[in-house]
Design brief:
By secondary structure, this protein is α/β, with parallel strands linked by helices. 38% of the residues lie in helices and 15% in strands. The radius of gyration is 22 Å and the shape is globular.
């Protein structure tokens, strides 16, 4: 099948061709015709399989064929959970709309709002945003959602995990009741399906692959290792394997900073990216990683969504996620666009249950190895690590900041301080306030 057969305009086909795409992915084949028909949609596909183009292309076509209103009010809104994903989606919107009379903008927290406000005042057809900054500007009456025709929730399950449920409902209440709603994600929890049922109207449902499966071309492997030997093992693997570009995931911000420092001390260029980093620091770290100036990027799960790094060869779980679905998103940073990739996990005794849960979720027995000199501790407990354990002072500090943010919620225009499932209560990043 070619893009020509999907009913897209010549302007969009020209933009697609310029990007080097020749044929649509399965999710694009299934989603684009349904969206062009005006249907609400609940779409699930593996990460890295073209979900963004799956909703962006038909959205742009609908807007370009519609009646252009005076002053260009916002007609389409794309909500994302993180700043990095917002920037990525915006870049795609810009690329695909190159030959259309469509204006777009992106807004997120962590940066000065003045340039964003200036762009909005010039008129915007498509707005890509994180919930906190969107509500902040709306509360300042600097934007209006009264003309929204299309709403897209990208990585909707992650937004629920990060505490955006209340913000999403507030945003929906600010829009016209009659609009097209599109939910795209690699995984859908029971909670997000319940949310979808509250505002989608007779939605079509498409799946490009079974939910929670991992890309076949990603080689997955686990190393059993003592917890205190993990740092030495990962440094050994990177150095001896001469790996040039490695994305490493930790469970906490403190853990990311600590591992990054040890990497640098071992002569491996590295940078950390997480919710406590300023947006400029995050942007600089990501840019350095993409252009190979930085060899290792150490990240928390905010980076599992929104990092599109072409041909990323290695993803390492320094610590397994305690939410199995996050494993799918983490390793999905490699093996993108048909390229091969390798995903390694360092598993200590107290992560045994996490590994078993992940294998059950993805329906795969992950091969396990032991490296001489880095053997697991035979006396270590296999009881699962408690959520938040090991954070020490940072745990209390995060609680204090969260409490303070809640008290200032009305002043700051909404910060994502909403209820969420207990299992995710300690996973909030600063993105949830921006």
């Amino acid at each position: 099948m070619s893009f020509n057969s999907l009913g897209l305009s010549n302007a969009l086909l020209k933009a697609i061709s310029k990007q080097g795409y020749t044929s649509p992915t399965p999710i694009q084949q299934k989603a684009i015709p349904l969206i062009l028909e005006g249907k609400d949609l609940l779409a699930s596909a593996q990460t890295g399989t073209g979900k963004t183009a799956g909703f962006t292309l038909p959205m742009l076509q609908i807007l370009s064929q519609g009646r252009q209103l005076r002053n260009r009010p916002i007609r389409a809104l794309v909500l994302t959970p993180t700043r990095e994903l917002a920037a990525q989606v915006y870049a795609n919107v810009k690329a695909y709309s190159e030959f259309l009379d469509i204006r777009s903008a992106v807004i997120f927290g962590g940066v000065n709002q003045k340039p964003q406000v200036s762009t909005l005042r010039n008129g915007v057809d498509v707005l890509v945003a994180t919930p906190g900054r969107l509500l902040d500007l709306q509360n300042q009456r600097l934007l209006s959602l009264s003309n929204i025709e299309i709403l897209v929730l990208d990585e909707a399950d992650r937004m629920l995990d990060m505490g955006f449920l209340r913000d999403i409902k507030r945003i929906i209440d600010l829009m016209p009741a009659r609009r097209q709603n599109l939910l795209f994600s690699a995984t859908f929890s029971k909670e997000i399906k319940k949310l979808a049922s509250e505002f989608l109207h007779h939605p079509a449902s498409v799946k490009a692959s079974p939910e929670n499966t991992t890309v076949d071309i990603i080689e997955q492997k686990a190393y059993r290792v003592a917890k205190d030997k993990k740092t030495g093992l990962i440094i050994k693997l990177i150095a001896e394997g001469n790996w040039k570009q490695v994305l490493v995931f930790t469970r906490t911000k403190h853990g990311a900073n600590k591992l990054c420092k040890k990497m640098v001390a071992a002569g491996i260029s590295a940078a950390a990216i997480h919710g406590n980093k300023t947006q400029s620091a995050r942007t600089k770290a990501l840019a350095g990683f993409k252009n190979n100036a930085i060899r290792v990027l150490v990240a928390t799960d905010i980076a599992a969504r929104g990092l599109d790094i072409p041909l990323l060869p290695h993803v390492v779980n320094f610590e397994l996620p305690n939410v199995s679905e996050d494993y799918v998103h983490r390793i999905g940073r490699t093996g993108r666009a048909g390229a091969r990739g390798e995903a390694l996990s360092l598993v200590s005794a107290d992560e045994t249950t996490f590994l078993r849960d992940i294998e059950k979720l993805v329906g795969l027995k992950i091969p396990v190895e032991i490296v001489e000199g880095f053997e697991p501790d035979p006396n270590a407990s296999t009881s699962p690590i408690k959520q938040g354990q090991g954070r020490g002072r940072n745990r209390n500090a995060n609680r204090s900041r969260s409490s303070k943010a809640q008290k200032n919620h009305s002043h700051k225009g909404g910060g994502g301080q909403s209820r969420r499932p207990k299992r995710n209560r300690n996973r909030r990043s600063n993105d949830a306030r921006n």
